[in-house]
Design goal:
This protein is of the alpha/beta class and 220 residues long. The protein has seven helices and nine strands. Strands 8-7-9 form a three-stranded mixed beta sheet. β3 and β4 form a beta hairpin. α5 packs antiparallel against α7. The longest helix has 20 residues. The N and C termini lie far apart (62 Å).
Length: 220
């Protein structure tokens, strides 16, 4: 996780004329994670009544638990994120599971990692957004040109053609292919335009942007 920072220090030392020795030449890495022999020594010194393996993946926790059991620890309780362990009275036991995960500071708000706005913003960062506004009469006829706003999407494809023009073509093609009766259904019209725009952009860009379509019914 800190490879870039460490690499930067290596380069700065090398520029100063230092010889940098790394794991490629010698076993110089120091870790805060104890090796098996060190854990064995700890259990021989401490002789705990309860062992609670807490750090690592499931396979690490289970192996640590087996090690503690082999050293005669009476109670061994490997935990996972969210487990609430009661140490006393009585035998140690997991009594509850609480929700865990990342949280985000968003302005003055604190949001969970699964908050809809967080997921949407991640998606926006990857594929951008296209907003389409279309006005139709009560009979399903288009009464004005569509309006399009594009953010976070390339301006043109590899052939130099405007992606905005691709969006307009997708809108026009969709409306012309839909019978007037179907165009009276606002939700169906919005969904059809959305699919057409996403597919058209994906064909050129290779990504499907977020597309928001608003169809307004105008009485004439």
């Amino acid at each position: 996780g800190n490879e870039k920072t460490v690499g930067r220090v290596h380069n700065q030392l090398a520029e100063m004329g230092c010889k940098v020795i790394t794991d490629a030449e010698e076993l110089v890495h120091v870790t805060g994670h104890p090796r098996r022999e060190e854990l064995q020594q700890m259990y021989e010194w401490v002789r705990p009544k309860i062992s609670v393996p807490m750090h690592g993946e499931a396979r690490h926790l289970r192996e640590h638990a087996r090690l503690a059991t082999s050293y005669g620890v009476p109670e061994v309780c490997p935990l996972r994120d969210g487990d609430v362990l009661r140490l006393e009275p009585g035998a140690a036991d997991v009594i509850e599971k609480i929700s865990t995960g990342r949280i985000f500071r968003d302005g003055k708000l604190v949001l969970g990692h699964d908050d809809m706005s967080v997921r949407e913003r991640r998606q926006l960062a990857k594929v951008g957004i296209i907003m389409v506004a279309v006005a139709l009469s009560q009979h399903g006829d288009q009464v004005s040109d569509a309006e399009v706003e594009i953010d976070g999407v390339p301006l043109a494809g590899n052939d130099g053609n405007s992606l905005e023009d691709v969006v307009f073509d997708a809108i026009d093609g969709t409306l012309k292919s839909m019978p007037a009766k179907r165009r009276k259904d606002v939700e169906r019209t919005e969904e059809s335009i959305k699919k057409a725009v996403r597919s058209s952009i994906a064909f050129i860009w290779g990504k499907r942007p977020i597309v928001k379509v608003m169809v307004t019914r105008v009485k004439i």
